[in-house]
Amino acid sequence: MIFDPNQRQNNRSARISMALFRMTQAIKKMTQLESDAAGFTPIQIQALLFCLHTRSDAATVGNFAHAIGTTHVTAVKVINGLVQKELINKAAKLEDRRVTLLQLTSEGQLAAAKLEQWGQSLEDLLLTIPEETLASLELGLGSVIAAMQQEGHVVVAEPCLGCIHFHPNAREGSEPHYCGLVQKHLSNEASLKECPEHTSSEGV
Q: What total of structural domains would you count in the chain?
């Protein structure tokens, strides 16, 4: 229904759906231009930034595939290409050797750091919109993302703070925090990384 302009006239959800669809097309074009300038494909950039910002024990091929909404096979191909470029290393997880952990090489760290501004053109565009409009947009998009997450269409990775599994300052030492999900202690640095298993404590 969203592609029929006559149907959209009296259907708010259809109008919003079309607006979101047009936005995704525009964002794809904007990020492609930035990717071309950086010398990587958009999915390669996502892989490098995933490794940069995801907690080390959660930076797996499977979680990367879920994060960008692609198949495991496609994710493996992307990662293997970056391994060949000597930007990413792969290693079997000690607790489960069927799981492949991803880690940036020193060259990969430099490349990922240079890509931190990827998506800046979108942020610059949003900065031209009044603050009160952005506040309403944030609330609305939050509801859309929550609904999509509920249906399993999107993974929302966030740092530990605010997660129901996170127990801050559970003990003294270099790894003071505790994650009840993976049942391990975390350093301050690790707790600030994104985790694809983040479960918000809001409303719990």
A: 3
Q: How far apart are CA 28 and CA 21, in angstroms?
A: 11
Q: Are residues 57 and 43 in the same domain?
A: yes
Which residue is associated with the tokens 């930034």?
49
pLDDT, one tens digit per residue, over 177-200 is 999 988 889 999 988 898 888 888
Alpha carbons 73 and 106: distance in angstroms, whole number: 26
Angstrom CA distances, 25 to 13, 29, 120, 133, 192, stand at: 18, 6, 16, 22, 31
Over residues 3-22, the pLDDT tens digits come to 999 888 989 999 999 999 99
Nearby residues of 149 by Cβ (< 8 Å), 6 or more positions away: 155, 156
Q: Mark whether 52 and 125 lie in a shared domain.
A: yes
